[in-house]
Amino acid sequence: MATLTLRREDGRIVCERVVVADRAHRRMRGLLGRRHLRQGEGMVLRPGWSIHTAFMRFPIDVVFLDADQVVMKIEPNVGPWRTVSCRGAREVVELAAGECRRRGLEVGDRVAWASRSSGDARVSRHTRAHEGPGEPAELRGTVLVASSDQRFVRLARYLLGERELEARETTVDRLVEAIREPDLDVVVVDGAGDVAQALRVSNRARAARPEVPIVVAADTGGRSPGGLRVFDRWNETEELLADIERLLAERSAAASGLE
After folding, report:
1. Helices (H), the chain
2. Gap between the Cα atoms of 17 and 56, Å rounded
């Protein structure tokens, strides 16, 4: 994703590093999965006039801009599970809580976007030099999400898709059957409020397909009685995704060693 700098017309910086979310899946994902937003970091959703903070872990400042880049409305310190909107806005900027006050940004200010220098711009880990304009990224693996909670399934699809991973869906009670699909790389089992049941089903699935690694998430993270890491499905998404990436890398290395 592109990274821009947001400035006032007089040149004063409002936010040094603003990630542009200009596609549907990027706008839907927003800041989901992040533990915090640092000062000087932000995201702009374009086009946009309304946002929600469902599943967010931290408060943010929300700034609505019109077509002329004039600040129409500022909603400071918006906490999780809120919805804010501004009719007529063309862009929504999400900043760390308190940034508008700290930077002196006010309704009526006109701002401008500036491209960041190549030395400052942070290149996405998914960018590939061989991809041409508009060419779809090659999928790097397939993850089966076993869950009966469509909220978690949708969240998983967004986050996995952002990392160029295919997400497939099944229910926990059908996992032992679904894991037999030949081209699966990793399985995520959503235990929701019943970790014990998730672990029992995971053990049966491992017995049916021991070469496919399984990751368990639930409403409460921690360690299972057997020492297996259980990820908090709402508050440890970054850690969950990092573990999936690790397992994919290990499988890829093992496959290369067999060639």
Report:
1. 24-29, 99-103, 150-162, 175-178, 195-208, 237-258
2. 20
Percent of residues, the chain, with pLDDT higher than 90: 51
β-partners of residue 156 are none
Query: What residue has token string 């990751």?
Result: 215
Collapsing DSSP states into helix, strand and coil, what is residue 92? strand
229/7 Cα distance (integer angstroms): 44
Asked if 144 contacts 187 with a C-beta cutoff of 8 angstroms, the reply is yes
- Round the average pLDDT of the chain to a whole number and report it: 84
Smallest CA-to-CA distance from 244 within 174, 189, 178 is with: 189
Q: Which two tokens stand for residue 33?
A: 């999965």
231 and 217 in contact (C-beta within 8 Å)? Answer: yes
Fill in the amino acid letter for 74.
I
In tens, the pLDDT along 62-118 reads: 999 999 899 999 999 999 999 999 999 999 999 999 999 999 999 999 998 876 543
**Per-residue pLDDT tens for 134-171?**
444 455 789 999 999 998 988 888 888 877 888 999 99
With bands split at pLDDT 50, 70 and 90, how would you rate the model's confidence at 25?
Answer: low
Give the separation between CA 85 and CA 129, rounded to whole angstroms: 38
pTM of structure: 0.52
Beta strands in 117-196 (DSSP E): 142-146, 166-170, 186-190
User: Which domains can be identified in the chain, with CATH numbers?
Assistant: 3-115 (2.60.120.1140), 142-258 (3.40.50.2300)
From CA 167, how far away is CA 42, in angstroms rounded?
27
The per-residue pLDDT for range 115-132, each reduced to its tens digit, is 654 334 333 343 333 344
Distance of CA 27 to the CA centre of its chain: 10
